[in-house]
Structure formats: C-alpha cells, structure tokens
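Question: does this match?
>
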Amino acid sequence: MRRRFCILVALLSPALVSAGPADDGRWYAGAYSFSDERGGFHILSVSGIGTKTDPIEITEEFYSASPVTLVIRAAGPARQGAPAEGTIHLRIVAHNESGAAWIEFEFELQEIRGKPSDFYDGLSFDQTNPNPDFIRSSRFARFETQFESFDRLRFTDGYVDPRTSASFGFFVTDVTPVGEFYLVQDPRIPST
C-alpha cells in the first residue's frame, strides 16, 4: 500500500508543483503558457489551473520599477478541471528587487503588443460582468478598473518595500480568443 502511495505521489507531483520552464522557455499552466521573454523581470514559478479556487499563480521577481510585459499564449487543451481557453483567474506574486518602494501597481491588457486593449477586441478584466470579489491584493487596499479606451487595473492605497512582495488576484476574459496576448505590469514609485 505504501509503495502504491509513493508511486501515485511521484506521478502527480509534476501536476501539483511547478517544475520550471519547458525547453522553449515558457511556463505552462491550465490552457496557457507564460513567458518573461520581453525582459525586466523573471518568472520564478507557475502553478494552478486557472479556476477561482485554483488560480494560475505566477511568482515573479522585478529588478526595476519600470513596466514589464508578461507574454501569455494559448497552449492547447486545458488540464482536467481547468477552465476553457478564454477565461482565467490569475494570481501574480511580485517580489520587489528594484531597490525602490512601490506605491501603486498597474496591470494593462494588450492583444497587440504596445497597443492598449479596447472594448472591441474582447480581452478584458471581465469587463462585461465585473465582479469586485475577484480582484484583490495583499498590500493595496483599493483598486480601480478602466475599461475605455484601454483595459487597466490599478491598485492603490498601499506600498511594497524593497525585498518584500505583494500578491494580486484578478479575472481575465478573452471572448474572442487569440493565440497570444500581453499583460503589462507597472510598479509605481513616488515621484520626486
């Protein structure tokens, strides 16, 4: 019996714990892959399947207080229990290694890199049925969503000191799914 249990744990452990990026440099979870290929930050781990109870959690390390871009790609069929392509609960854990305190943190969706998402592309922070229960942060007390003429989610009323971290949870919908989209992450520092 003990031997069967050990074999079962060994078989299931890759599905439960992020083992690292694949040979293509991407991290896979749910129906998506995630990449830090645009630079400025580094993905440390990815886990989860993308549901409300098991969001895809992406742990990242930020080296500056400049905007960075997470590349998200459809990666084929979702694992059992994962939502279909087009919906995803995300949890970002951002480690501040920038040397400066962050006083805000903003996320922006882009279907075309460098061009803000608009109402007509179908990509949003659940624009058609926004649920504030899906939006949260461990370090910021407030958030605001901006749906036009772009899709942005800004967290305020808090801070993240250097060498500490903050988590952010939110829901992304893409009602006209594309093979690749972008999440721009922008830690904000006090202006001088």
